[in-house]
Specification:
It contains 17 helices and 29 strands. The chain is an alpha+beta fold. The protein folds into 3 domains: about 1-100 and about 110-155, no CATH class; about 160-260, Immunoglobulin-like (Sandwich), CATH 2.60.40; about 290-605, Endonuclease/exonuclease/phosphatase (Deoxyribonuclease I, Chain A), CATH 3.60.10.10. The strands form 7 sheets. Strands 17, 18, 19, 20, 21, 24 and 27 form a 7-stranded mixed β-sheet that branches. A 6-stranded mixed β-sheet has the order 3-2-1-6-5-4. Helix 10 runs parallel beside helix 11. The chain is globular. It comes from Pogona vitticeps (central bearded dragon).
């Protein structure tokens, strides 16, 4: 046994013989120990196993996976086997060479030492008992001893699981990498940007990991490239970018760096955009007591890429400017430049929220919430500025499900009972309502309820939109009056209704009569009529613009920011783009505007 153990220990890197072993309390004694390397332990409570990773003398990495509830001793035995496996393989491959060389006289070898092959020590130097479960034994700061090789255990250190740059890079537009960090946050990571040395493509020369200076000098550090978001200048047109990211956490722990290179070079931007002049009014984040609010239908990619969109709805739009990556460049720059406190978006693709907008706006200080439409790939997103608000609660609903099941709508269900066709049409719609209650970070007594929706789009469905509005307002009333009575309402969205419609009148006036013309759906087989009321005093903060949607065959005002007129007032409305700017490329979307809608922006304040 001891002969086998001594052979195993001799095979391990850095082992130096000593004639002293363990002292009386189980701590190491009389052993000359080299500097510690790191052993990474990944232990997640929701997973049955943990993993232990460590480097061995030949430069390779060993990883052991064990049950979290298993006694430590079994894991240590497995680590001893894995640590010696590489040495055994090396012996086998050089067997002939070893036979040709004279070996040492066994009689001259020192006697084997009573040292364990592998042991785990607590930070105070005492051996951790082998009957302790793995999940308790492997703690941050413990020391794994393999022969004389020591490894400082780091439990769940920050680790990059994904790092990717956007496919489309435009000069003058922010590049927001997709960063996924386990046991950390992108906000705490270290970023370093590099540019291709002109005339020396980095891909051809190759790059080295971690330092960003590999590839034989093909990459050079980009000026000002030490932030999470990097905006390439015109001087970088034609060059590729590389990002080196070091994962970190709030405790200052760091994981191994990782790098990502752009798939293509930086391209020239489109020139003047429709939102450039608007940014002159929103250069800074609003001060205390003000809330800059944005609502914007950003045109979902699943709608922009249809054959109908390319040939019928937007035939005037250059095909490349309908591509998602291109439009995302414009959208990120536009939204970042508004320095908003609250942003309500409609037609947000799930993947766009997760992979693009969410990470980008997070980098600009905004926290994002998402509500997917039922059986759809797009939905609603609400963002709020982290240093001005904290989220108290969410109360999102699917409008059709709420109508069918929520006791709040029992009266409405009763009114619809004799209009089965209309009720069925409402139940077939996938529209959702996103409701978030926020609390001011500077004045906790101030709360605000932010609602976001996108109503049924069909021009011949005003009665459906009236019912959807009634469901929304009844739900919001429950949240505001019953749960947060001091929270004024901001109700944003694409309501698919012009100011002349019953929906707009209903929200603005607090009631709708049963004889309103919108109850008779124009050209639809179904119709109904009923009187509805709501308790809010709401007004359109941005008034009634000539249009917020401008496409080849239609233009009109469909989007609104409705506010509680009893508690909030408008400080300023950010002017919309001029008609000349909107129609420079005939209509929207265009090479200079990412959507067929226009964002509404206003600064609000408490009365």
């Amino acid at each position: 046994m001891w002969r086998w153990l001594w052979g195993t220990l001799r095979a391990l890197p850095g082992l130096r013989r000593t004639r002293k072993g363990l002292n009386g309390d189980g701590a190491l004694a009389g052993v000359t120990l080299p500097a510690m390397e790191r052993a990474v332990v990944r232990c997640v409570p929701s997973e049955p196993k943990l993993s232990v990773s460590f480097a061995v003398g030949d430069g390779s990495t060993r990883q052991v996976q064990r049950d979290q509830a298993e006694p430590l001793g079994r894991a240590l035995a497995r680590i001893a086997f894995n640590a010696s496996r590489g040495r055994k393989a090396a012996k086998k491959s050089s067997k002939k060479a070893r036979r040709a060389e004279p070996g040492p006289d066994p009689a001259l070898l020192p006697p084997p030492l009573p040292l364990p092959a592998v042991c785990l020590y607590s930070p105070d130097g005492r051996a951790v008992a082998e009957d302790v479960p793995n999940e308790e034994a492997w703690q941050d700061g413990t020391v794994l001893q393999i022969g004389e090789a020591r490894y400082r255990v780091e439990r769940n250190p920050p680790s990059l699981t994904h790092l990717q740059l956007p496919r489309s890079l435009l000069a003058g537009f922010p590049v927001c990498p997709k960063v996924h960090v386990e046991f950390g946050s992108p906000r705490d990571c270290l970023f370093r940007w590099y540019q291709e040395r002109r005339g020396e493509p980095g891909a051809a020369a190759g790059t080295s990991g971690g330092g960003g200076g590999g590839g034989g000098g093909a990459w050079v550090e980009a000026p000002g490239g030490s932030e999470r978001v990097f905006t390439p200048s015109n001087a970088l047109v034609g060059l590729r970018l590389k990002l080196v990211c070091t994962p970190s956490d709030r405790q200052g722990r760091h994981g191994p760096p990782r790098e990502a290179e752009s798939s293509g070079p930086v391209e020239a931007g489109p020139g003047a955009c429709t939102f450039d002049a608007r940014h002159l009014y929103t250069k800074r984040v609003t001060g205390p007591g003000l809330v800059r609010t944005v609502t914007y239908n950003i045109l979902a990619d699943i709608y922009a890429q249809t054959e109908l969109s390319r040939t019928v709805l937007y035939p005037y739009c250059a095909p490349y400017s309908l591509e998602l990556d291109y439009r995302q460049n414009l959208l990120k720059k536009e939204l970042a430049g508004y320095n908003a406190d609250i942003i309500c978006l409609q037609e947000v693709d799930k993947s766009v929220f997760t992979d693009s907008l969410g990470p980008a706006l997070d980098a600009f200080g905004l926290e994002g919430l998402f509500k997917l439409k039922e059986k759809q790939h797009e939905g609603l997103a609400t963002f709020y500025r982290r240093d001005k608000f904290r989220l108290l609660s969410q109360h999102d609903i699917a409008l059709n499900q709420a109508l069918l099941e929520d006791p709040l709508h029992e009266d409405l269900r009763g009114k619809l009972a004799s209009h089965a066709q209309v009720q069925e049409k409402v139940l077939q719609r996938s529209s959702v309502l996103q409701v978030s209650v926020l609390q001011s970070a500077s004045d906790p007594s101030r709360k605000i309820c932010v609602a976001n929706t996108h109503l049924y789009w069909h021009p011949k469905g005003p009665n459906i939109r009236l019912i959807q509005t009634a469901i929304s307002l009844a739900h919001i009333r429950h949240v505001v009056h019953d749960m947060y009575p001091d929270a004024p309402l901001i109700f944003c969205g694409d309501f698919n209704s012009t100011p002349s419609t019953g929906m707009y009148s209903f929200i603005s006036n607090g009631s709708i009569a049963e004889d309103h013309e919108d109850w008779v759906s124009d050209g639809e087989e179904s119709c109904c009529s009923m009187s509805l009321t709501h308790p809010f005093k709401l007004k359109s903060a941005c008034g009634e613009p000539a249009y917020t949607n401008y496409v080849g065959g239609f233009h009109g005002c469909l989007d609104y920011i409705f506010i509680d007129a009893n508690a909030l007032e408008v400080e300023q409305v950010i002017p919309l783009p001029s008609h000349e700017e909107v129609t420079t490329h005939q209509a929207l979307p265009s090479v200079s505007h990412p959507s067929d809608h226009i964002a509404l922006i206003c600064d609000l304040k408490w009365k």
